[in-house]
Amino acid sequence: EGIMLAVKHVVEKYLEVNAKEVDWDGERYSKFKNVRASTCKVCKAQNTPLWELLATDALHDKKKKIVTYRNAKLLLRGLPVAYTPWVRIPDPSVNRASGFLFPKLRANSALGTQITIPYFQTIGKSADLTLSPNIALQPVTSNKTASNTLETRYRQIFNDGYMEFNGAL
User: Fold this and answer.
1) What is the pTM of this model?
2) Can you spell out the DSSP letters for 109-168?
């Protein structure tokens, strides 16, 4: 148990976390204050990382292997591109985790403008399911109605092969 000031913490050789203060409870939780996190080198003053996450607080739950960031901003090349009051992500030691994937925005002449919000669900160690609702934002033309669809993908690996099913409604 303890509190450390001006800390650099590397998680699983990939995620580098810099914080003004870290409070370890000795077992399950690490609480970070004024956090900079990135897989890029963030401590070099002359180099701007490709991406970094800035947050007022972060809580690392070692048992659930989850990091929760509060008041988080995503910066790309130093420019803020997204803000969220909180975001929960798996820690870098997790190989696969269920949850929402990055949304996609697409537009074409057949389907109009749509946003896709995929959800990835692990099913054991060798299978997964992805559900991707496509929500219509704008129809193709004013006389056509917008089309909402649900795409699905099921994948499973076997000792001697691989299976994948794709579909849409």
Assistant:
1) 0.63
2) TTTEEEEE--EEEEETTTEEEEEEEEEEEE-SSTTS----EEEEEEEEEETTEEEEEEEE
